[in-house]
């Protein structure tokens, strides 16, 4: 991973968000029911979309910490704000075709 793509921690968090069922559903709900609706209405702002995706990404970071760190330390110290922002931005980028209506079906199957 290059420096502009984030750190090892952000890669781990992104993989967990994609592979953990609860986290995946949380991210997909945000994309399908919020971001796509905003795009359809013409009020979609990519910067706000990243901020909106931070909510499910933060919950994913908490889940990862609880599952893999044994509750030691604080969850927000495991993944920095920059890591969580990088994950939200990459998730948004990977789903933009679906959000804009250029793709159909399940966003992960494209």
Write up this protein.
This protein is mainly α and 110 residues long. It has one domain. It is 72% helix and 0% strand. The protein is built from 5 helices and no strands. It has helices spanning 8-19, 21-41, 46-68, 75-78, 81-99. The two termini are 23 Å apart. The model has no long low-confidence stretch (mean pLDDT 85).
Topology diagram in text:
Elements: H1 8-19, H2 21-41, H3 46-68, H4 75-78, H5 81-99
Helix pairs in contact: 1-2, 1-3, 1-5, 2-3, 2-5, 3-5
DSSP strand tally: 0
The number of distinct helices, counting runs of at least 4 residues, comes to 5
Rounded average pLDDT: 85
How far do the termini sit from each other? Answer: 23 Å
**Strand content bin:** under 5%
Q: Structural class of the secondary elements?
A: mainly alpha
Gross geometry = elongated
Order of helices and strands: HHHHH
Largest sheet: none
What low-confidence regions span 5 or more consecutive residues with pLDDT below 50? Answer: none
Estimate percent helicity. Answer: over 70%
Number of structurally distinct domains:
1
| CA gyration radius, whole angstroms | 14 Å
What's a concise summary of this model?
The protein is 72% helix and 0% strand.
Provide keyphrases for this structure:
about 110 residues; mainly alpha; 5 helices; about 70% helix; about 0% strand
